[in-house]
Amino acid sequence: MLTRIWPGAMTDVRDMKVRIVGKDESDDAPRSTEYRSADEQTLVEASLAGHRDAFDAIVERHRRNVYRLCYRFVGNHEDASDLAQDVFVRAYRGLTGFKREASLATWLYRISVNVCLNRVSSRTPPIEPLDVREHLDSRAERPDAAVIRAERSAEVRAAIARLPRKQRATLILRVYHELPHEQIAGILGSSVGAVKANFFHALANLKKLLQ
Asked: Which of 6, 48, 157, 191 could be bridged to 19 by S-S, CB 3.0 to 4.6 A?
């Protein structure tokens, strides 16, 4: 179960806490409506001016995608929540460096990938235990087939974790977040051609690992 936390006082970034919601949690925390429909430029400028609700709105708008990306790197909810927390702390600290050459989403993805790659070691991370009952649906398939599917899912996650750093990041962004090659290139600071090559090699290596 994840701890529910919400952005704290913006006067000291050390006190900042970001509420990250996992896949099984409801989203019923109180939130400000002042900046809910504001554009990116307004949110960034208001955040830099010290308006807490503006950065809260940035977090609210992007926290799910940031959390999902972190989860794909570490494979468990607790570590993903910690990583996502770190991403938004770094984003707040570095907001003055946001050049608006890319979208805010691309910039946050870039921070997320860097945080994850720096935190996660090259060895296979621990895979959270699978609750087989969660995957069983007697109306749709036989129990043994559901068990095999669940085990295969864990095997795929473990294999992805063994890919080289940029291949892993490219595969996750392309397959699980369905981002275009151009946006991935902006996130990783590489060319579109390099992204396509990394994706091709990632798929090939993943196939070998799964065999």
From this structure: 6
